[in-house]
């Protein structure tokens, strides 16, 4: 009996790391459990909250993966830097679409999704106590990863009044003494602000002035966007900036987990140090499929955007039924809509719709305090489902 008491006392001393005290479970992880519960109860839930493409990759991409499985080396550990042919395809993609020259040997590193890159970049450059500039609103993972590595997030405001671009005068008034890194991303998620080369050059000049590593997150550049841009097109960019990109949205490969980070060789080498100690290389077949995707022509993007354009028009109709306003010129995979002034809480608004109309829409507050008063619709829903959602709000 005494042994059992001693054992329990010892077990009670096991605690989680303090870094988890400032990190909650990802919002969509918890909310999707709630949505799944409703579906299991027989509720006809339409999920318009998640940016996970429902369309299939090109048939050539699936064929490349299928064929690669029979290769003798397919099931072995792969290079931490990816296949040379994959790095070549990534560099060629940037040369073709952005007119940016990338050394495929040293300036590009394949990733298992760009989310992995957020962690590895933070591990490579942030020490405990360093500060990192994070957009508000923006991707929640930037702040979560900062906490996980012991850094301090410093939010900078993005507002509709400034076209969801940084207020550089306000940034200059900020104490930047401890700021080591800055996250940005255009086309912007969640607002769909397209960004511009002028904006990128301002960001690069700001980063150079204050010796801050600038990281641009660029997974939405080809979706409903006639002018895809890369921050690597800006003058003097390689001294202070790197870029993340992903095949998830552009090529409907979100579950494949394929991304990339590009920039100066010294920066890429630092990220590789973190990455090579946390995984054992990307599956060979997935790399072969990614190569095929990166070689697709313009017809692929045109076909994708015809589908998304139809869906976006229907989402605009749905947003109007909810008395929301929106910027019809925004780009990307989402519609960012402003709630009517009579609505005091985005979270309460979307919960009411979820439980009364069985439709899940993301509240803007997931992406930061400046998301209050907004909701975000995903275009990763069939036109038929969006039409069904519209009917649920129309009077009988």
Mind explaining what this structure looks like?
With 396 residues, this protein is an alpha/beta fold. The protein contains 13 helices and 13 strands. It has helices at 2-11, 27-40, 59-68, 84-98, 114-125, 141-148, 168-173, 197-210, 265-275, 284-294, 298-321, 346-357, 383-393; strands spanning 46-47, 108-111, 131-136, 152-157, 179-184, 213-217, 241-246, 259-263, 325-326, 334-338, 359-360, 362-363, 374-378. Strands 2-8-7-6-5-3-4 form a seven-stranded mixed beta sheet, with helices on both faces. The mean pLDDT is 92.
Strand content: 5-15%
Radius of gyration: 22 Å
Q: Determine the structural class based on helices, strands and strand pairing.
A: alpha/beta
Distance between the termini: 69 Å
Rounded mean pLDDT score: 92
Helix content bin: 25-40%
Encode the helix/strand succession as letters: HHEHHEHEHEHEHEEEHHHEEHEEEH
Quantity of strands, as a count: 13
What's a quick, concise take on this entry?
The chain is an alpha/beta fold. The protein has helices at residues 2-11, 27-40, 59-68, 84-98, 114-125, 141-148, 168-173, 197-210, 265-275, 284-294, 298-321, 346-357, 383-393, and strands at residues 46-47, 108-111, 131-136, 152-157, 179-184, 213-217, 241-246, 259-263, 325-326, 334-338, 359-360, 362-363, 374-378. The longest helix is centred in the last third of the chain and has 24 residues, at 298-321.
Main attributes of the structure:
396 residues, 7-stranded mixed β-sheet, 4-stranded antiparallel β-sheet, 13 helices, 13 strands, globular
């Amino acid at each position: 009996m005494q042994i059992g008491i001693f054992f329990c006392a010892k077990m009670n001393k096991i605690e989680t790391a303090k870094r988890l005290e400032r990190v909650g479970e990802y919002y969509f992880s918890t909310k999707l459990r709630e949505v799944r519960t409703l579906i299991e109860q027989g509720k006809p839930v339409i999920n318009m909250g998640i940016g996970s493409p429902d369309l299939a990759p090109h048939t050539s991409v699936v064929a490349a993966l299928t064929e690669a499985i029979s290769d003798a080396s397919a099931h072995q550990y792969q290079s931490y830097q990816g296949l040379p042919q994959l790095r070549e395809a990534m560099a060629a993609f940037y040369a073709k679409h952005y007119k940016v020259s990338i050394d495929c040997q040293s300036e590009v590193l394949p990733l298992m999704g760009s989310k992995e890159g957020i962690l590895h970049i933070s591990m490579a450059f942030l020490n405990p106590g360093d500060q990192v500039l994070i957009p508000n609103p923006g991707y929640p993972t930037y702040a979560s990863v900062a906490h996980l590595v012991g850094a301090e997030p410093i939010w900078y405001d993005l507002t509709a009044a400034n076209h969801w671009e940084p207020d550089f005068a306000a940034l200059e008034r900020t104490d930047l003494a401890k700021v080591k890194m800055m996250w940005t991303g255009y086309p912007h998620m969640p607002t769909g602000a397209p960004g511009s080369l002028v904006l990128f050059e301002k960001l690069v000049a700001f980063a150079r002035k204050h010796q801050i590593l600038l990281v641009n997150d660029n997974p939405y550049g080809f979706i409903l966007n006639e002018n895809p841009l890369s921050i690597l097109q800006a003058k003097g960019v390689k001294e202070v900036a790197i870029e993340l990109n992903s095949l998830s949205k552009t090529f409907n490969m979100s579950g494949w987990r394929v991304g990339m980070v590009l920039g100066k060789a010294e920066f890429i080498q630092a990220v590789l140090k973190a990455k090579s100690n946390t995984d054992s290389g990307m599956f060979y077949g997935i790399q072969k499929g990614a190569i095929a995707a990166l070689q697709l022509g313009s017809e692929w993007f045109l076909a994708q955007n015809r589908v998304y354009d139809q869906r976006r028009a229907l989402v605009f109709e749905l947003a109007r039924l909810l008395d929301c306003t929106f910027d019809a010129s925004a780009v990307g995979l989402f519609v960012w809509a402003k709630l009517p002034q009579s609505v005091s809480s985005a979270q309460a608004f979307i919960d009411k719709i979820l439980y009364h109309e069985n439709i899940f829409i993301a509240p803007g507050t997931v992406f930061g305090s400046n998301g209050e008063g907004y909701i975000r619709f995903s275009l990763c829903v069939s036109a038929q489902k969006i039409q069904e959602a519209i009917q649920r709000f129309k009077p009988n």
